[in-house]
Amino acid sequence: MKLRNFFVLVLSGLLLLNMESSAQAIPSITLKLDQKGHAIPSKLYGLMTEEINYSYDGGLYAELIRNRTFQDNARPRQGENIHQPDHWSLVQDGDAKGSILLDRRNAVNNVLTTCLQLDALNASSSSRIGIANDGYWGIPVCPNTTYTASFYAKSNKSAPLTVSIESVDGKMVYAKALSPAIGEGWTQYKLTLTTAANVQPTANTRFVISTNEPGQYWFNLVSLFPPTYNNTPNGNRHDIMKLLADMKPSFLRFPGGNYLEGDYFNSRFDWKKTIGKLDQRPGHPSPWGYRSTDGMGLLEFLMWCEDLKMEPLLAVFAGYTLKGDYLDDPKLLQPFVDEALEEIEYVMGDKSTKWGAIRARDGHPAPFPLSYIEIGNEDGFDNSGSYEKRFNQFAAAIRVKYPNLKIISTVGGKNDWLSGRFSIPKGGPDLIDEHFYRNSIEMQEMATIYDKYDRNGPKIFVGEWATREGFPTTNFNSAIGDAAFLTGLERNSDLVVMHCYAPLFVNVNPGGMQWKSDLIGYDALTSYGSPAYYVQKMFSNNLGNQVVNIETKDIPTQLKKPNTRDSIAGVQPKVIPAMFFSVTKDTNTGIIYIKVVNSTSKVQDVKITLDGVVNVAAKGTAITLRATNVEDTNTIAEPEKIVPITTYVNKLSKRCQQSFPAYSITVLQIQTKK
Ligand code: AHR
């Protein structure tokens, strides 16, 4: 360490000690209820989603068969002798003999081109032969559950097939059903399988289609669904939807993220290939290292929004891909602009429009609400600087056809280095998207970044952000960083009108995570929210409709040491607050929500003064999320180690004092009458 830096550190330490000792005064917060704060935007809290960490396939999208159209590893890998389809294997009981292979000569149609061929050389009533799928880290088996299986099949032998969900060794069969005799031409078969009331939940299982008759059998689009949220066909996992519904999100930003852009033009989110019947969806490679089935297609995203009463925030592909390809020649870009206009029409056009009619054909005659369109994603990475031109071309075309839509630019921010690499496009975005992924102390420091932001420019959309400590889901220290940052977003919600955390999901099985630090974790059987999830839920469920201006005094502080990058850049240690506040009010009910984040290791008393109210109910509630150790977290094994606890609070008044536990995040609800 350089001598100068050493002295600064010592000095700052002394300063901090000094501050801590002089900060014996009790911290105080005054609520200026005599002033009218700004209205809280109706879409402040939302969700961001993309196919990453097995978010849909192996996650929210309830399909249980992995590699259902045999596209994963559809060509032999270098050095492979026997070409086995990923996640499928041959089942041979007793004397049964045979083989499986991928076959491209028997396409179902021009989308389902690779099928699985089973050559059953020897099989009998006591020796079955078949194909098994291991699912997304197992097939979840629960009691009293009816599963819907379907598959395309054909055979040179007119024999039925048995479909079963069974233990990995085949010894235990949890549910099974028999198909009709399989014909010579491709036919889709549908069966239901029901488990008994007494089965123990398990995912140590496989899905098997088997026969007792020698012959040749071909399969494609093999599918198995458990009951889904609202029983929607091709729908979503119930438990994860419930976690999301509890957050009361107001919008969903989709389909990305990097997933929107793709590595190359032909692996972008090509929305037209994600609609219609499943046998018309080829799927595509996602930039996160695995193929997407596109079972979660454009209409499914929209129906997800509808189910949770969220408005879609649609990001449209903007002619730039992750590997750096871009199109800024207006003529070459125009087909993508047209594609975006058609996509918008698919979402919000009525049945008299071309794409509205196609949406109706797909099963949803009513248009969806849509107010926000984002042009691209993180175009600050586009070193060519082509975004300005691309944005302007998209924005102009969208505004001609849809003048009421608000348009979001991915560059032009001031606080986020990436969006700040280029200035605000001349085409005049309504909002700028800023992204932040930092550690806890950095996020705490950022609680004030919007306090002094220019109010004359576009509004801000914080379209991706998270405190990144702990994985696969984040730990309590992250929850502290998130909560501190959120207090800043709420206080500045005249400017920051929307935000959404990212990434939302992670499948916690080995190989499931591509991005460390996620909000909601799951395996095949269960799911849980991280401490950060509970912060989002506590904050969005206790919001009111108006911000209350506050004044704080004698707030404890902490020292933010420079990280390695900062040290290299000569950034000095900094004293920052260690408690964070945001206050909002519901003008209809008179309830005041005081959010207090205590990132210190000590209980903190706080004096609370409510200026400008006549009456304060003595009894209120406190919802508190806390941990004894900041590295504590929730997991599949301990999903509720850290959850909010609600307690009653007494002796509230216009001037009162409350204690806030060490390492805690609290929402204090106070009933007032004006
Ligand atoms: O949230 C993970 C990734 O972070 C997103 O796909 C991308 O937009 C950002 O860089």
How is this structure best described in words?
There is one protein chain. A hairpin with a 5-residue loop joins strand 14 and strand 15. This protein has 674 residues and is of the alpha/beta class. It contains 11 helices and 36 strands. It has an 8-stranded parallel barrel, surrounded by 4 helices. Strands 25, 29, 30, 32, 33, 34 and 36 form a 7-stranded antiparallel β-sheet that branches. Strands 3-6-11-8-9 form a 5-stranded antiparallel β-sheet, with no helix packed on it. Bound molecules: alpha-L-arabinofuranose. The site of alpha-L-arabinofuranose has 11 residues, from loops.
Descriptive tags:
674 residues, alpha/beta, 7-stranded antiparallel β-sheet, 11 helices, 36 strands, globular, disordered N terminus, binds alpha-L-arabinofuranose
The helix tally amounts to 11
Compute the average pLDDT. Answer: 94
End-to-end CA span: 57 Å
Strand adjacency order, main sheet: 2-13-16-17-18-19-20-21
Bound molecule kinds, no repeats: alpha-L-arabinofuranose
DSSP, total strands: 36
What is Rg?
A: 28 Å
Which regions are unreliable across 5 or more consecutive residues at pLDDT < 50?
A: 1-23
Helix percent band: 10-25%
Share of β-strand residues: 25-35%
Class by alpha and beta content: alpha/beta
Shape: globular
Write the layout of secondary structure elements.
Blueprint lengths: L2 H20 L5 E5 L12 E4 L39 E5 L4 E7 L11 E8 L6 E5 L12 E10 L6 E6 L5 E6 L8 E8 L10 E7 L3 E11 L12 H10 L3 E4 L3 H4 L22 E2 L5 E2 L5 H10 L3 E6 L13 H19 L5 H8 L10 E4 L11 H15 L4 E4 L21 E8 L1 H6 L13 E9 L8 H16 L4 E6 L3 E3 L12 E3 L4 E3 L1 H11 L4 E2 L2 E4 L3 E4 L3 H5 L5 E4 L1 E7 L5 E8 L5 E8 L3 E2 L3 E7 L18 E5 L5 E6 L3 E10 L1
Parallel strand pairs: 1-31, 2-13, 2-21, 13-16, 16-17, 17-18, 18-19, 19-20, 20-21, 22-23
Antiparallel strand pairs: 1-26, 3-6, 4-5, 5-12, 6-11, 7-10, 7-12, 8-9, 8-11, 14-15, 23-24, 25-29, 27-28, 29-30, 30-36, 31-35, 32-36, 33-34, 33-36
Helix pairs in contact: 5-6, 5-7, 9-10
The chain binds alpha-L-arabinofuranose (AHR).
Alpha-L-arabinofuranose (AHR) binds next to loops.
